[in-house]
Amino acid sequence: MFATEGKGSQVLKDFSVFLQEKEINPENITEVCSDMSPAFIKGVESEFPMANITFDKFHVMKLVNEALDQVRRQEQIEQPALKKTRFIWLKNQKNLNSEQHETMLKLKDTNLKTARAYRIKLSLQDMWTKSNLFACFYFNEWYNWAIRSRLEPIVKVAKTLRKHEKGILRWFESKMTNGLLEGINSLVQAAKRKARGYRTTKNFIAMIYATANKLSIQVESHRLE
């Protein structure tokens, strides 16, 4: 595990130096999973030339969810029925309570723009269940549907995903996600809240290592008589 300050391409340089100090050749890294940050992409390509990039599928769906919510917020001005329904469209159906499920049944198959955006979202979500051989064809069909939707936020996100298609479809070979990292991050944020912040970044990083690595520190006590 390695932690450093920053969000730019320099963090990949720092990681490469860290590996070399441990006598590990950066070219041994053949798979990387990240979001679609241009800085991360640039850093990986520069410092880890042998690595294939998989774009985290949960981040992909997050972008689509954000586009869906933009459609809803624009449409609810003229469609009051959409007010206070944000989480109904963003949650998985199995996680809806009975009231939310009933509302969803009334709205999802209508001609509302939000309902159309929702169906486009579900279609992309279903892509992750397809086989490696079929995924490319499925993505192309989804993309063509999305850009013809005349829903500006959906069209915009579809074009973004098209630019990153190779890394998105790489998941069907690597099966990599940032799920483990997100789990570690939850531990880190809990430690941060518990301490109510840290005086320096260096102290925070030290606590990250201590927390995420689950170190067992034994303290000996001595009685003075």
Question: What's the structural blueprint in terms of helices and strands?
Answer:
Layout: H1 10-21, E1 31-34, H2 38-47, E2 52-55, H3 57-75, H4 86-90, H5 98-107, H6 113-127, H7 132-147, H8 152-163, H9 165-169, H10 171-174, H11 179-195, H12 201-212
Parallel strand pairs: 1-2
Helix pairs in contact: 1-2, 3-6, 3-8, 6-7, 11-12
Tell the overall outline.
globular
Strand order of the largest sheet: 1-2
How many distinct helices? 12
Order of helices and strands: HEHEHHHHHHHHHH
Helix content: 55-70%
The average pLDDT is: 89
What is the count of structural domains? Answer: 2
| Main pleated sheet | 2 strands, parallel
Distance between the termini: 44 Å
- Class from secondary-structure proportions: mainly alpha
Report Rg: 22 Å
Give the total of beta strands.
2
Task: Name the poorly predicted regions.
Answer: none
Proportion of β residues? under 5%
Characterization of this structure:
The chain has 225 residues and is mainly α. It has two domains: 10-55 and 177-201, no CATH class; 58-174, no CATH class. It has twelve helices and two strands; from the N terminus they run αβαβαααααααααα. It has a two-stranded parallel ribbon. Helix 3 (57-75) runs antiparallel to helix 6 (113-127), helix 6 (113-127) runs antiparallel to helix 7 (132-147) and helix 11 (179-195) packs across helix 12 (201-212). The longest helix has 19 residues, at 57-75. It is globular, with a radius of gyration of 22 Å. The chain starts with 9 loop residues before the first helix and ends in a 13-residue tail after the last helix. It holds the Pfam family DDE_Tnp_ISL3. InterPro entries: Transpos_ISL3, Transposase_DDE. Residues 2-208 form the Transposase IS204/IS1001/IS1096/IS1165 DDE domain. This is ISL3 family transposase.
